[in-house]
Design a protein that fits this description.
By secondary structure, the chain is mainly alpha-helical. Helix content is about 70%, strand content about 0%.
Length: about 300
């Protein structure tokens, strides 16, 4: 499930220089920030939207901190941005898109929630089908359903669902795994639903999904949580940018990616250090760049 990242690390570990992997990840993150800028400019917001997205991507601490760690987050997010920038270009699908799609699929399991929706969106654009938004959204929902039904998920991964973790490691229903014998997220959800009822399951989904956007955590230091406070403004800027650009086709795709990757956390669990927010940063940063530019236009008019 993480084969692409393992292959990326192998040469650096082989020569005994893992720090070089960090350096390459940093360079890749800068390239991805440039790609984010191109996506923002392609959407067609106010002048400077791309520059704002580029600057925000470089300054976004919860996003860039993973450059320094040999986890999948930085590598995956950079690949996701490069893939999205390529596939949203006008014209037919290029060979590089297929290569990036393959890497993204095997960089992290949620890669399929980027690759499949993006190809559905691209196919509809190339065929000029003129499909209504609801039909594309139904196709995206099918992708999510397929992700939930993928078999052979380890019991240790499903335990966080069955035992009702919002943040992994904090079960609300300890011991619930005793009567569970499934092997997919869907089977774990069915067990959770059967054992606790629809009201509890729905509330747990909402709490998990909202936890992704709650950067402060009770077990972080006060100084750490204060450091993260400005990033709530980033979410507000993203909402402004998405609203003002809502008629653009690319925005529909980016919003779908945001919803799908939030939903998969709602159906599974969040991670204590905020790593699971990383796949959501690319669309958030594009929208925030657009929102910052729209805000500057309003300020100049005043």
């Amino acid at each position: 499930m993480y084969a692409a990242y393992v292959l990326f690390l192998v040469p650096f570990i082989a020569v005994g220089a893992p720090w070089l992997a960090v350096l390459v990840q940093a360079m890749l993150a800068v390239v991805a920030a440039h790609a984010l800028a191109r996506i923002a400019d392609r959407i067609g917001g106010p002048l400077g939207s791309g520059d704002a997205a580029f600057a925000l991507a470089l300054m976004c601490y919860p996003f860039q901190q993973w450059v320094l760690a040999l986890y999948t987050e930085s590598f995956f997010a950079s690949l996701a941005v490069l893939f999205l920038e390529r596939i949203t270009r006008p014209g037919p699908v290029q060979r590089m898109v297929w290569a990036l799609a393959a890497l993204l699929l095997f960089a992290r399991p949620v890669g399929l929630l980027f690759v499949f929706p993006a190809f559905i969106w691209k196919f509809a654009a190339l065929r000029k089908l003129g499909l209504p938004g609801w039909s594309l959204n139904c196709a995206y929902a099918v992708v999510l359903l397929l992700a939930l039904c993928v078999p052979a998920v380890g019991k240790d991964k499903l335990a966080a669902i069955v035992e009702a973790h919002v943040i992994c490691g904090f079960p609300e229903k300890p011991g619930a795994m005793e009567h569970f014998d499934g092997n997919s997220v869907m089977s774990a959800q069915k067990h959770l639903f059967a054992m606790n009822g629809p009201r509890y399951a729905a509330g747990l989904f909402v709490r998990r999904a909202l936890s992704v956007f709650t950067l402060g955590r009770a077990y972080y230091s006060a100084q750490h949580n204060v450091l993260l406070l400005p990033f709530y403004l980033l979410f507000a800027l993203a909402a402004i940018g998405a609203w003002h650009s809502r008629v653009q086709r690319i925005v529909g795709l980016l919003l779908a990616l945001l919803v799908l990757n939030t939903a998969i956390i709602g159906f599974t669990h969040d991670e204590w250090s905020g790593r699971f927010l990383v796949p959501l940063w690319p669309p958030i940063l594009v929208f925030a760049g657009l929102g910052a530019s729209w805000l500057m236009v309003r300020v100049r008019r005043v």
